[in-house]
Amino acid sequence: MNEKKLVQNFTSYINVSPVNNGDRNGSVQELKPKLLNGEQIAGAAHSVVMLAPLSEMDRGRYGSLFVTNYKVSFVPLDHTINDECGQKNHLVGVYDVPLTGVGALWLTDGGAARRRRLLPRADVPVKLKGLQVVCKNMKVLSFSFANSPIGSGRKVAMALLHHAFPKRHDLLFAFEYKEPYYPTLPSDMNMFQRPGDWRRELERCECPHWRITCINGTSDAFMLTAGETLIVPSSVLDYNLMETARHFRSGRVPIWVWGRAEGAALLRSGELLPTEQSATAESVLLEQVRRSHPKLTPPYVIYLCGNPFASGGNSANTLPPLAALHASYKKLAELCTPTTLSNFWMQDSQYYSILESSRWLRHVGACLAAARTAAQRLAGNVTVVLQEGDGVDYCAVVSSLTQLLVDPYFRTISGFQSLIQKEWVALGHPFCDRFGLPRPGSPKEESGRESPAVAQAAPVFLLFLDCAWQLQQQFPAAFQYTETYLTTLWDCAHNHVFDTFLFNCPRDRELASAKNFVQRPVWDWEEQFSEQDIALFYNPLFVGNKPVQLHSSPLMHSSPLQRLSSASGVSGVSSGTTGTATTGGLPDAPLPASACVSRVELWAQCYERWLPPLDAPHAGRAQLLLAYCSLRTQIQKLNEKISSLSILSNRQSNGDADAEAPRAPAVSRFFPFSVQRAHTLARDLDSMQLSLIDASLLLDSQSLLNAPD
After folding, report:
1. How far apart are CA 135 and CA 330, in angstroms?
2. Contact at 8 Å (CB) between 421 and 337?
3. 240: number of Cβ within 10 Å
4. What is the reported pTM?
5. Cα gap 535→632, rounded to integer Å
6. Residue 601 near residue 464, CB atoms below 8 Å
7. What's the rounded Cα separation, in Å, for the pair 123 and 120?
8. What is the rounded distance in angstroms from the CA atom of residue 331 to the CA atom of residue 365?
9. Residues 137-150: pLDDT tens digits?
10. Residues 6 or more apart from 311 whose CB is under 8 A from it?
11. DSSP state, residue 214
């Protein structure tokens, strides 16, 4: 009877128990995390168990948990082959999370079923049994301190509360990281930091009726959240801009961001302030915009959040307030971050109803619809003015999507990065506010009230990346980058080593640089990833400057092999520069994006990659795109063989048997972020990636993830 009770009450916290207490305590004490220059350990707990995702306290990894001024890091006692597979970051380990990527902390009873939210400056119990870290990329890490010394769990929790939710912006690790930076950015990438960068864009678009003004970089600046360089109609004087800016929120007068040689242009602006002369000031400025068109065509204004002053404006695709968008995202996050297996299956039984109640996909569809409307107007040679709030949120989303539809340059990796630099960084999207970070120069409030930065948190940038992914699925041959690239970009947005997404506006970045802050853009991917991982950012189906079939279904009208042949330049396809998009000669017809909710999908790789039950082996877009990569390599080798054949060599090799082409390795659905059965994958995948890197067309087209499940 006693033996039966012992069996029933026994709970295993690790998959392999230590041999003895000496091994458990001695070797664990020697574990240390990998530290960067300027990184220091703020708290540590040994003999910690990191529970497996969705486990009921029955499986996990044994090791030590550290909190530094940069990251939270778990160092396992024993390494497995799974630790070496998948995407590997040089700065962040497999079980590391940057502190700015921490979304919420929960106290647990050692498992994941019962938990309580842990808020900054809250009391932490001395006998802390467990801690759960929910990351902003929906990754969930659960730790048990049942075998740790009493008080060690509390030290880790206190260190996390202090460093993951700092009171001041200059307490972020980016201000402590003094590693020298030597930029190796692509030569065709535009950072939009100087007036010459904007002049290059103006000349690329061939828009002679617009001019560059640098008044925003002087003491007469009226748009404090934007950079020093603005593009405005040539007929508008700087004095008129200063006067008109008083009638727009945050001084956001309509400014040029993109244009066509025929005359149509894309502009962004903030909403009008409720003053008596606001309507008159707007009419005068829009008249100057009309005169900038060679045919004097009146501009078309799209009120993204509705027009509060008139009922005649276009409000068919009104976007939600930021608070509603944030609430929608929280419901989506709850769906994608179940803490137990039973909770996962309960949500799975109501999956579509919960997803619909979040309204996230409807917001994605509304952004796509607004971008499609703007692209169609631009294709008809009509100037479009986007108007919304302070002009820094939905204006950035819709303007970026519109340019993806109308300009093939922005569908390349360098072009996409230039687009983000222009629309999000140079024009002042408040990343600190939207990511919940403290504002530069203003510490978080000491009281229990929410600070303004937290109150304005909203996943606006994630909404844009989700929309970009939707376009990529609708037109898999039109984009040079893959969904792996987009997912990696979202992860890196929360890595505060880089300054790209660390400030509210260029002015804050300049003030920090004046205090010896080292600017380190996220676009230097070699700083974080190996060539094998970077190869997964490139799409093998990308056709470059060749005509793209304008249909929405990835598998209609042409087979993957035909598209691969087209991208490889095999016989039957007109010659041209393979894998590079033209930066001029813009097409008349934009990509006909579908904004119907029935065509909008959930971005599974980004939101569901940390859920093991969904990470099916031999499935998903990853497996199909690996097959495409393999076919691409075979086509390239056959082309090289055909070009080198002669009659004599053909006779000599007629009896030789060709070597069997290597098969694409089997990967799981969310590769490279979640790898299962890694022991059967590592060797084949490494050899395949190396062969892709050696290919002459690598920099033009490499990818894994562009095909439907």
Report:
1. 12
2. no
3. 17
4. 0.86
5. 14
6. no
7. 9
8. 17
9. 999 999 999 999 99
10. none
11. -
